[in-house]
Amino acid sequence: MYPAIVVTVMCGIGVLMLVYVVPTLVSTFNELKVPLPLSTKAIIAVSSFLLNYFWALPFIILALALGVFFMLQSPAARKVFDVIVLKIPVISTMVKKTNAARTARTLSSLVGAGVEIMDSLAITEEVLQNHYYKEVLAQARRDVEKGEPISAIFVRNPDLYPSLVGEMMSVGEETGKLSEMLLRLAVFYENEVAAATKDLSTVIEPVLMVVIGTAVGFFAISMIQPLYSVVGTF
Question: How many Cα atoms occupy the beta-carbon half-sphere of 72 within 13 Å?
Answer without folding.
Answer: 11
